[in-house]
Amino acid sequence: MVQAAEAAAAPAASAPAIDPTSLAALDRMGEALRGLKHFSLTSDTTLELVLEDGQKIDLDGTVSYKVVKPDQLFVEIRSDRRLRELYFDGKDLTINSPRLGLYASTPVEARTLGEFVVNAAEKYDINFPWRTSSTGVPTWRPRT
Predict the structure, then answer these.
(1) Rounded distance, CA 64 to CA 1, Å?
(2) How far apart are CA 132 and CA 25, in angstroms?
(3) Mean pLDDT of 67-86
(4) What is the pTM of this model?
(5) Distance from C-alpha of 23 to C-alpha of 84, rounded to nearest angstrom
(6) Where do the H-state alpha helices sit in 1-137?
C-alpha cells in the first residue's frame, strides 16, 4: 500500500529535452528556406510497423519535395510498396499513383502553401511532417 502511494506521488515522466542548439540550427535553416523563391529537398524515411504478434517491420523510402512560392508544391513519396505523387498548383490538389495508373484531383481553397497544408490536413487527412509559416515553408518545430 505504501508503494502505491509513493508511485502516485512520484512526478510524471517528463518529455525529453530538446537541444536548444539543434533548434537554433533548424530555425536558421527554416529562415534560409523562407527566403528562397523555390527549393527542393529529399528525405529518407523509415516507417516501423508493429504486427499483432509483436513483430516489427521497417519500411524504408524517400520523400522528395519541390516548392515554388507562393503556391506550388510537388511531393513524391516512394517506397518498395508504393509510389505516390502529389501536386498542388495553387488551385487544385492532384494525387497520382503512376504504378496503378490512377489519379484524383479536387479544387482546394488556398492562397498560400501554408493554407494548403492546413486544408490538406483538415479536409483530406494528408499530413506533412512539418509545421508551416504563413507561406507554407517549414518552421521545423516539433508537433505538440
Answers:
(1) 55
(2) 17
(3) 91
(4) 0.67
(5) 31
(6) 2-9, 20-34, 113-124
pLDDT of 127 reads 77
Residues 90 and 69: their CA atoms lie apart, in Å, by 10
Instruction: Give yes or no for a contact between 77 and 88, defined as CB atoms under 8 angstroms apart.
Output: no
Task: Locate 10 and state its grid cell.
Answer: 512520484
CA 89/CA 107 separation, integer angstroms: 10
E strand segments, the chain = 38-50, 56-68, 72-79, 83-88, 92-97, 102-107
Give residue 10's Cα distance to chain centre.
Answer: 35
Q: In the structure grid, which three cell numbers stand for residue 99, read together?
A: 504504378
**Residue 78, φ and ψ in degrees, nearest 5:** -125, 130
